[in-house]
Each structure stands twice: as C-alpha cells, then as structure tokens.
Amino acid sequence: MADKVIYLDNAATTRVSDGVLAAMLPYFGDTYGNPSSIYEFSMQSKKALVAAREEIAAALNCEPSEIYFTSGGSEADNWALYGTAEALREKGRHIITTKVEHHAVLHACEWLEMKGWRVSYIGVDENGIVKLDELKRAVSSETVLISVMAANNEIGTLQPVAQIGKFAKERGICFHTDAVQAFGHIPMDVRAMNIDMLSASGHKLNGPKGIGFLYVRQGTALPSMIRGGGQERGRRAGTENVPGIVGFGQAVREAGAAMKERAEYECALRDYFMDEVLRRIPYARVNGSRKDRLPNNVNFSFQFIEGESLLIMLDMQGICASSGSACTAGSLEPSHVLMSLGLPEEVVHGSIRFTLSRDTTKEEIDFVIDRMEEIVAKLREMSPFYSEVAGRIRR
Questions:
Q1: Is residue 320 annotated as a catalytic residue, yes or no?
Q2: What backbone torsions phi and psi does residue 98 show, to the nearest 5 degrees?
Q3: Which domains are seen in the chain, by residue range?
C-alpha cells in the first residue's frame, strides 16, 4: 500500500471537517438528553436540533418547519416517491423521472410499477441533460409527480431544475429533486426553483454519515413513512440523531460560507485535470457537460481498457477513485448513466470518476495524471484491440 492516500472520491463520501466534529462531540457525551423529553437537561439537545434546522432552512430559502430529518438521501428519496404515490393515488398514477437518476429513485419507481403505477423514464442528451421536450410531452392528466435530480452523481451534469420546477408548477404537478450531490456545492433556492420536495445527505458536504433531510413545501401532501412516534411533527417517527443533526447543521454553515471560493478553486483544478488528461492520453473522453457541471466532478472514459483494472492499479499507488456510484460498487453491470449518453458498452466499461475537494492540490492532480498515463499505456499493451489500432496507425 502506498504511503500517502490521494482521496478523489468525494462524491462517495467526504471527510468530516474539524468544525463539524467539534460541534458533534458534546452530544455524544455530556449533552446526551433525548430532545423529545420535557425536562431542562434535554432542552439543550432540543435547542441544538432547532438551530440546525434553522441553518439548513436558511440555506434553502425555506421555513424550518419544512425540513424533515432522515437517515440519509436514499430514505428521503424513497419517502418522496412512496409518500406522494400514497397521498395522490386517487388523483393519478403516473410519475415522470429520468434514465440517469440515482438508484434510490429508480428502484422506488420500479417498485411502484409493480404496484400498478406508470412511470415515464425520460432520456438525456449526449451531455446527460434531460430532454425537456420529451419530459413535457410525457405529461398527462394522470401525472402527479416529476422527480429529476439536481446534479448527477456519476458525471456531475447539472439539470435545468428551475425550468422543470416552473413547468411543474404551471401544470399543478408536484416536483421533487434529488439534490444529494448538489446541496452545499452549488446554490439551491427552493422558492425560486419551484421545488416541492428536495433530498439531501450530510456526508456529501463534510458532514457525518447517517443523516439527511427531506424538504417538503408547506401544503404538499406527504404521509409519514416511519410510524411510531411524534417526532418531526408526526411525519417521521424515531428518536432524533442529535449529534448527526448538529453536525449536518455545522457542515451547511461551513459550506455556505465558503461556497463561492471553494467552487472557483475546484472548477479551476477540475478543468486543468480534464485538459491535461485529454492532451496526454489518446482515446480518452470526458463524460458529461463541460459547461453545466458540478465544480468537483471529473469523469473519463478510456478506450481499450477496463475501468476496474485502472482503479485497482491506481489504488496500488494510493489513489482513491471510483467507477461510478458508490451504491453500485462491485457491480459488473455497465453504468446506466453512461449507457444513457449513447456510449458503446466497451467505452462505458473503461470509465472512471474522480471527485475533488477543497483539500485537493494541484501537486496531487499532477501525480494522478502521471500515474494514469503510465497505467493506461500498460493496460493497452495487453489489449489485442488496441494493438490492432496502433498497428494501423503505424502503417
């Protein structure tokens, strides 16, 4: 194993910041009261929970009462889809989503299809941006929900959330967005974007794992999914994860304070990374939009190699990256996101995702590029397909 780890998989999870850790620690120790209890000792936990909710609401431009804490983004996505289906089943049984959503949305839609719901899966263009005309044509009198992610977890492409929200509002359709990768990295304003429900997760923005939230616009029909207590205003039973909630609130505070500066730094490093790889490694391509993209996301495809082999050899050099979503790690199936871009399967299998952070340095990126150039060349030496292409070029 390499002496130093270069961590470039921040879309999978991020390091808990020092400020977040410090904010959480008291609620594991001396301040351990249950916030639902009525005595003064527990009021300290209650006040901390209220303060975190207010911090998150301010970041989204919504009311604190519209924030419901969950165990993470997947639960929030599931709740949004299953809850809407239950609440509006008499109004209609049609949902619209995209082919590139996170599996927390896609698998929920598949389950609803088995229960008699109709789901339209909208395609994307070569950059991964949803085809708005196709989405609009899919709407019917039975449509009760549109769910489109704010930013793709694999290729970083940003979706036209504000346009979709405006369209959904004009048609009287509930609009949900999975903002797990976007929240804390780019500005999100649920009022301006006409978002009815939004999912987010703490560990994607230097907060703790195991905590997320679902924003639910006041007046949106959404029954509880976890029953058994009156927590979260009766909509989500279970003793609140106070340390996690406090940490999430602190992470949101830190992300908001540094968002502009951090985005500028990551964008510059991201673009340098892309340009250098494309310049130095032949038969490489960038997946996703170069313009409408998360600041920290880089996704490459290399022809004539297997992405998994590249990942293993990078790991031997202490470089942490990913072949796609952390939730599908270990799967031999080609990425549904990259297949939706229209890429050949052999190109999809040669893909790798890097996600940077504010801690990533140019020196680390240069080291990664050097190692990648060497490893890709070595892997191609073992490829009969590349040998054939190289032979034709030499001739």
A1: no
A2: -120, 165
A3: 6-13+258-394 (3.90.1150.10), 18-255 (3.40.640.10)
